[in-house]
């Protein structure tokens, strides 16, 4: 029987670390705020994705990579199974070392060694490109004046969904005329809860805390007739997130064979910061 998760005001509680086989293992206890709407005893995809960001950044530091001299440009989360509400063991390692670019891998497993998530991230050493800085993306209405996304929050209510704030702002008539059947809103999300109790979130951790909900912002399929679950999440950032609000302009794409993708342009309050792709498995109920 799954034990009742703790109720601390964070998604995870750090439960210590140890070194073995040249790697650092860190243990985390999920709280009730990670709970999924999909099934009792499991976590929503967002908190483990944020935990992967934590593990990758810790792994970078463990291996001498300076997160002030460079940063992760991309993180991918591969979901190997429904993540349980039990203590998780994590580790990270560099699988492609380099002074300018390094590829790291994170693993999230239970105490028995069963893996639930693998994640990877590219760390790139920074340089001065301020004179050519640009971000390509439509201008979007910001979180100011947006209204509560009651349809989304009510549809997916759970320990995790109840811990986040989600609002929506309508796109202009001109934007809606450009693309037929597009999502009519940009959704803005944030949460006051840190990923790990007693620890300040990094920009990547803030992104990953809510970016996974992009797939659930689908406004095309009737959830009484269809299920659509993402099997992965890949996020690219051309610049770090600033502020607390993450904007998600999500578009669902479906093939004829039960496979699809959610393609999302992501924003902060200052403009576009990157993109997110999620592979989907589609099933009729």
Automatic annotation (TrEMBL):
Native species: Corynebacterium falsenii
Protein name per the record: Thioesterase family protein
Lineage, highest ranks first: Bacteria, Bacillati, Actinomycetota, Actinomycetes, Mycobacteriales
Highest taxon above the source species: Bacteria
Cross-referenced SUPFAM superfamilies: Thioesterase/thiol ester dehydrase-isomerase
Limits of the Acyl-CoA thioesterase-like N-terminal HotDog domain: 35-123
All copies of domain Acyl-CoA thioesterase-like C-terminal, residue ranges: 143-280
InterPro entries: ACOT8-like_C (IPR049450), HotDog_dom_sf (IPR029069), TesB_ACOT8-like_N (IPR049449)
């Amino acid at each position: 029987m799954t034990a009742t998760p703790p109720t601390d005001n964070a998604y995870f509680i750090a439960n210590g670390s140890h070194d073995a086989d040249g790697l650092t293992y860190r243990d985390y206890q999920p709280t009730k705020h990670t709970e999924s709407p999909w099934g009792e005893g499991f976590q929503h995809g967002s908190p483990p994705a944020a935990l992967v960001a934590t593990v990758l950044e810790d792994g970078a530091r463990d291996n001498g990579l300076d997160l002030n001299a460079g940063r992760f440009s991309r993180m991918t989360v591969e979901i190997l199974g429904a993540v349980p509400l039990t203590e998780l063991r994590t580790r990270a390692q560099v699988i492609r070392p380099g002074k300018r670019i390094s590829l790291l891998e994170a693993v999230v497993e239970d105490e028995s060694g069963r893996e639930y998530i693998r994640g990877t991230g590219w760390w790139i050493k920074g340089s001065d490109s301020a004179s050519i800085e640009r971000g390509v993306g439509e201008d979007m209405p910001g979180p100011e004046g947006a209204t509560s996304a009651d349809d989304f929050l009510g549809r997916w209510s759970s320990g995790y969904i109840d811990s986040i704030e989600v609002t929506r702002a309508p796109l202009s008539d001109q934007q809606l005329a450009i693309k037929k059947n597009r999502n009519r809103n940009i959704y803005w999300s944030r949460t006051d809860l840190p990923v790990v109790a007693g620890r300040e979130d990094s920009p990547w951790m803030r992104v990953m805390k809510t970016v996974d909900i992009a797939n659930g912002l689908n406004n095309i399929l009737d959830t009484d007739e269809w299920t659509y679950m993402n099997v992965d999440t890949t996020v690219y950032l051309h610049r770090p997130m600033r502020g607390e609000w993450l904007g998600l302009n999500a578009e669902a794409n479906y093939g004829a064979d039960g496979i699809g993708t959610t393609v999302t342009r992501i924003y902060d309050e200052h403009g576009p910061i990157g993109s997110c792709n999620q592979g989907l498995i589609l099933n009729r109920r």
